Structure to design on (602 residues):
């Protein structure tokens, strides 16, 4: 898996390093609005007394590169946190639903059906817009609307494992029901959930930036890729870099996440359903 | 019949959920309607007229009985029936969605098949990278980029006038043309929005088609077909495509909701008066009846698509009939 996803992994690592270190080391403060008149809308590679502006400056004379890196922190953190917690919640719900069955199963899958009956974007809009917009709201809403797919996958897998001889064997040997689920059945059911969660990171980043673009997510002056694109909307014809640069970073990030997810899926599929190494 | 009943029950649950979500949310819809100079009694009168003073359960009962009679209520902000508001917006989004969905499959499926035929080659890899990038691109960002190219860019670089596309709206403002000219005007305004939605969709469908075609291409029955001497063309169209089409037809039904919802961004950038804009405006203005009406339509589209896909699968793929 590492080999087929080498480039996306490297690129993503470089990006993570960038978003962590660039705002720390930069000479320009990405949030402070200084001498607007002499610094606004400088093209990429232009120089100002603050130094060189790799990706130019925005309407308020702030450095687009440093801002985009700061925004990347938020977008990556929200995307990763949102999808991983949603993945964990989905795994938990799916596993318990399959293992317990009965009304718990019907209730959990019914709730998933209801939430899946609205396009996720519309559900996000209703939730995010009606509560106070902000980072926390976005993460909570991403989790609340993102667990259903993983829950269905894990439930199907656990049901499949439940019917197999080793589960009966573990119970016959005196393993408690929960112990057998957590130690035996669940670890063998995680592969599709891991792939779905990895692919979900890119999706979550896209949704966060979409909400921020519409003004319902991360609020300025905190930069996120989505609200930076929105901020450059008015000057898209005279200073296209203000919108295009953060969008390009967003695309690169999401492509990397997708390619890593694909590679993960391929390597897990190649092992075959019976030779799957339990993921701990 | 049982499935239909299940779908209706699901629809009702979704509507109740959105009702609860909307009513639990903080923020006072009347705050947008009451003038700042109004006295407390006036404000209370407006809230009472909107039915916001009653207990939530009473409100739910009134809304539910209205829904059962096909009455979506009255818009707080516009003072006219929600049904009338949505009737203006729905055709715009549905047209945008249908046109781009059709284009998505007309472009995506052949592209994926062409890739699968050259799987592993340089062209295949180049298209895969491009498709992954386009699929990852936010539609609103692509829209802004293309607006920059086809409006500002077309004027600056001296591109021919036919390449200068209108960036906003559904019609040319103030145009008095009718008939064919009006239709052409709408078509010209549709090129960018439909094209962008279709490009993103086609990238996804191409990825799916390529993966399935490669997978089916490795199956034993394809090898058998080749071995018994069937022409490569015949194998491709008769054996491969026949097995590829059923999931694609189902996918077509399942893609509709995503396209309709995805048009929110495109409508926002291009200022199209569709469902997305109605929804955004209603949310911003706490226009609850419109929010509930719009989500009802979205939910109906999703549930109807799922039901169609479920019923369609055994028809197009007899092996799946139980």
């Amino acid at each position: 898996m590492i080999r087929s996803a080498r480039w996306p992994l490297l690129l993503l690592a470089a990006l993570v390093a960038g978003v962590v270190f660039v705002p720390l080391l930069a000479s320009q403060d990405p949030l402070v609005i200084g001498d607007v008149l002499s610094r606004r809308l400088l093209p990429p590679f232009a120089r100002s007394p603050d130094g060189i502006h790799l990706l130019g400056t925005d309407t308020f004379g702030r450095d687009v590169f440093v801002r985009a890196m700061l925004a990347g922190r938020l977008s990556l953190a929200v995307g990763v946190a949102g999808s991983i917690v949603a993945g964990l919640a989905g795994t938990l719900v799916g596993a318990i639903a399959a293992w317990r069955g009965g009304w718990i199963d019907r209730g959990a899958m019914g709730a998933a059906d209801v939430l899946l009956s609205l396009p996720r974007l519309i559900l996000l809009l209703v939730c995010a817009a009606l509560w106070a917009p902000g980072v926390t709201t976005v993460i909570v809403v991403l989790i609340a609307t993102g667990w259903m797919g993983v829950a269905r996958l894990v439930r199907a897998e656990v049901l499949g494992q439940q019917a197999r001889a080793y589960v009966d064997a573990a119970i016959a040997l005196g393993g408690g029901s929960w112990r057998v689920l957590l130690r035996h059945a669940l670890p063998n059911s995680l592969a599709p959930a891991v792939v779905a969660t990895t692919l979900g990171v890119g999706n979550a980043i896209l949704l966060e930036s979409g909400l921020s673009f519409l003004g319902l997510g991360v609020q300025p002056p905190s930069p996120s890729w989505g609200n930076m694109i929105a901020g450059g909307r008015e000057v898209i014809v005279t200073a296209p870099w203000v919108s295009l640069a953060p969008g390009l970073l967003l695309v690169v990030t999401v492509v990397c996440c997708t390619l890593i997810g694909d590679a993960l899926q391929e390597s897990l599929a190649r092992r075959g359903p019976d030779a799957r190494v339990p993921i701990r | 019949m049982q499935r239909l009943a299940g779908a209706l029950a699901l629809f009702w649950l979704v509507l109740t959920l959105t009702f609860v979500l909307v009513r639990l949310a903080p923020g006072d819809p009347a705050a947008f309607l009451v003038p700042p100079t109004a006295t407390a009694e006036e404000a209370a009168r407006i809230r009472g007229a909107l039915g916001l003073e009653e207990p939530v359960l009473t409100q739910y009962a009134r809304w539910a009985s209205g829904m059962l009679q096909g009455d979506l209520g009255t818009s707080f902000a516009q003072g006219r029936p929600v049904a009338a508001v949505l009737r203006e917006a729905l055709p715009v989004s549905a047209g945008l969605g249908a046109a781009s969905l059709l284009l998505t499959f007309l472009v995506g499926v052949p592209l994926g098949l062409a890739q699968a035929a050259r799987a592993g080659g340089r062209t295949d890899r180049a298209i895969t990278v491009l498709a992954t990038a386009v699929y990852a691109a936010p539609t609103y960002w692509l829209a802004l980029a293309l607006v920059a190219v086809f409006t500002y860019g077309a004027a600056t670089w001296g591109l021919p006038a036919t390449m200068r596309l209108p960036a906003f709206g559904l019609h040319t403002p103030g145009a008095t043309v009718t008939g064919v000219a009006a239709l052409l005007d709408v078509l010209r305004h549709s090129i960018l929005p439909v094209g962008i939605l279709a490009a993103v969709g086609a990238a996804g469908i191409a990825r799916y088609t390529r993966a399935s075609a490669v997978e089916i291409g490795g199956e034993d029955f394809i090898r058998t077909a080749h071995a018994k001497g069937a022409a490569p063309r015949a194998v491709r169209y008769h054996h491969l495509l026949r097995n590829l089409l059923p999931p694609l037809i189902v996918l077509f039904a399942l893609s509709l909701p995503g396209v309709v919802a995805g048009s929110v961004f495109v409508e926002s950038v291009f200022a199209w008066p569709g469902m997305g804009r109605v929804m955004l405006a209603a949310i911003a203005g706490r226009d609850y009846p419109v929010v509930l009406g719009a989500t009802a339509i979205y939910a109906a589209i999703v549930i109807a698509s799922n039901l169609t896909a479920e019923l369609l699968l055994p028809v197009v793929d007899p092996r799946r009939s139980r």
